[in-house]
TrEMBL record:
<feature type="domain" description="NAD(P)-binding">
    <location>
        <begin position="13"/>
        <end position="160"/>
    </location>
</feature>
<dbReference type="GO" id="GO:0005737">
    <property type="term" value="C:cytoplasm"/>
</dbReference>
<dbReference type="Pfam" id="PF13460">
    <property type="entry name" value="NAD_binding_10"/>
</dbReference>
<protein>
    <recommendedName>
        <fullName>NAD(P)-binding domain-containing protein</fullName>
    </recommendedName>
</protein>
<dbReference type="GO" id="GO:0004029">
    <property type="term" value="F:aldehyde dehydrogenase (NAD+) activity"/>
</dbReference>
<dbReference type="InterPro" id="IPR051783">
    <property type="entry name" value="NAD(P)-dependent_oxidoreduct"/>
</dbReference>
<dbReference type="InterPro" id="IPR016040">
    <property type="entry name" value="NAD(P)-bd_dom"/>
</dbReference>
<dbReference type="InterPro" id="IPR036291">
    <property type="entry name" value="NAD(P)-bd_dom_sf"/>
</dbReference>
Length: 327
């Protein structure tokens, strides 16, 4: 297949974890991938994409970059948890304008932030969305705007991300801080409370497989991924120890009281505090619709996925010399 005959996807947020993973998955499945970035001097040239300069906040620049695109992947977020309220919806409006101009399907990686602390434990695609958090309300508003747009839309919802390029995540910022040799594991959750995680390459592969069956998708589609479920922090820690070959790694509690005290002046801590309820109650995503459609959910074994994540985040300096763990 020549470049001229390959379907084209524009990825917004390709410098981030899910955007970069989706770009890789689409390229591997025969798509031509174009990626938008404000600073081309700082992009990953190893990513199999055609980089173009532009700002995701500027509708004209997104629309120009989307010329010829069948799909626009909206995987862009405000950097450093700053000014979500002021940036999230304007960025989505720019993507909507580009989608209208070119008739492209918009793909949104969804989150569990849309669901409230008192909701059901197992959540299907048609479950009511209601939450008291600022970020959750924005996510609900984003999905409502997409549904009301009249455009073709695909939302793939998953748990908290982890992966080789997931430094800006609960996994890479809290559980095992990226860029540091692995010395301990931090547990933000309550003992005995499970948590849903999603391996970035699995999420990206799911998106790519769904887009490969575009003709069978409804105009507005939501799919939930079960991902990786760990019964609690001790369960996750056991898998991380196995992945790292470090049975001695200690498990520490996350200092929630200190985070709450600093939340008024530290934006990151404010965002973490708002999401604490997801670590105090179990919330699982029901993937039966996805399995019925695809036949199976892409799923990398936990220890394999965790080892790749730890190595990619710079937590295992000697990763190249380590044996690959058994599946």
């Amino acid at each position: 297949m020549t470049t001229a005959t390959k379907p084209l996807a524009l990825v917004l947020g390709a410098t981030g974890g899910i955007g970069g993973a989706t770009a890789r998955a689409l390229a591997a499945r025969g798509w031509q991938v174009r990626a938008l970035a404000r600073d081309l001097a700082r992009v990953d040239r190893a990513l199999p994409v055609d980089w173009v300069q532009g700002d995701a906040l500027q509708a004209a620049e997104v629309t120009a970059a989307a010329a010829g695109a069948r799909v626009i992947v909206h995987a862009v977020n405000p950097p450093g948890y700053r000014n979500w309220a002021g940036l999230v919806l304007p960025m989505l409006r720019a993507t909507l304008a580009a989608g209208r101009a070119h008739g492209a399907r918009i793909v949104l990686p969804g989150t569990v932030y849309n669901y409230a602390a008192d909701g059901p434990e197992l959540v299907a695609e048609d479950a009511p969305q209601a939450t008291t958090t600022r970020k959750g309300r924005l996510r609900i508003e984003m999905e409502a705007a997409l549904e009301a747009s009249g455009l073709k839309v695909l939302i793939v919802r998953a748990g908290d991300f982890f992966g080789p390029h997931s430094a800006n995540s609960w996994f890479g910022q809290v559980v095992v801080p990226a860029g540091r040799p692995l010395a301990a594991i931090t547990d933000p959750g309550r003992p005995g409370v499970g948590h849903a995680w999603a391996y970035l390459p699995d999420v990206a592969e799911t998106i790519a497989r769904l887009l490969g069956r575009e003709g069978e998708l409804a105009r507005f589609e939501r799919f939930h991924m079960a991902g990786h479920w760990f019964a609690d922090g001790a369960d996750l820690a056991a898998a991380i120890r196995a992945a790292a070959g470090r049975p001695d790694l200690p498990l520490k509690r996350f200092p929630w009281p200190l985070v709450r005290l600093a939340a008024p002046v530290v934006p990151l801590f404010r965002e973490l505090s708002e999401m604490r309820y997801l670590w105090r109650r179990p919330l699982r995503l029901d993937n039966r619709k996805l399995v019925a459609f695809l036949g199976a959910e892409p799923h990398t074994p936990a220890v394999t996925a965790l080892r790749a994540s730890l190595a990619g985040l710079g937590c295992l300096p000697d990763a190249a010399a380590m044996p690959v763990p058994a599946h």
